[in-house]
Amino acid sequence: MSDVFPRWTNRLPGQIIFGLLLIGGVVTAGLNYYFTPKYTRVGFQPTQPVPFSHSIHVKQLGLDCRYCHDGVDKSWDPNGPAADTCMNCHSAVRADDPKLEPVRASYKDANKPVEWVQIHKLPDYVYFNHSVHVNRGVSCVECHGRIDEMDEVRHEKQFSMTFCLDCHRELMPKKYIVKMDEHGKPEKLDLIAKQYGLTASALAELNGVSITNSLEVGQKVNITSGDPNKRLRPLDKITDLAYERSKDPANKDRNFVKEWHVKTSENCSACHR
Fold this sequence. Notes:
Blueprint: H1 12-34, H2 54-60, H3 65-68, H4 83-90, H5 101-108, H6 130-134, H7 141-144, H8 161-171, E1 175-177, H9 189-195, H10 200-207, E2 220-222, H11 256-259
């Protein structure tokens, strides 16, 4: 009697099991790599061609971040300093320091830029515009940490999706979607307010409506106004990395959302292009 199946099918179960184990191993390795701090580069501190100390230049000498990163409030790219910028000072200060040789060489030949090692990177699918954030009151420290205290720049914070969303969610108001009550009618404002320990008048004022206004099923009602004070600061304090909101008397009763034109995006395509 001839075989029903060819002999090579005897090896098929083993091959399937091996293939599944291989795929599982690749997936596990990928998850371990791409979802760990190693991939998000926390602690990454490469050796640069010129030992530039932010602690000396910013904290001790009081240099404004925008003197070197002149595109940070004008473009998506903050720009790194050109040799011309460095030589504005170092043509007279430590002019013969051997550590500055790459800067002097680049200054003499524009086709030989200083090969700085990029520290802060985002995935290719993320579009981050520095000027949009800076001009809305987001300081350098929110993403880069106290860079003014670093002799050697390191990657301080985890640039994950959660990191971005946590910030945006704090700025955005918490919303409640109006449902249908037991009588088949839209919930009333006072009952929604009661669920969150609010008064109907306070909730009406927060949403710019009258207490007597009738709501519609599916309508979004703001429960909180968001808290910009946690992340935003006055525009003249953006590069003051030692600034503390709690010690600024001007922050009392300031309406950040109105004065600093905060418009937190609810559209994912603002970052994902």
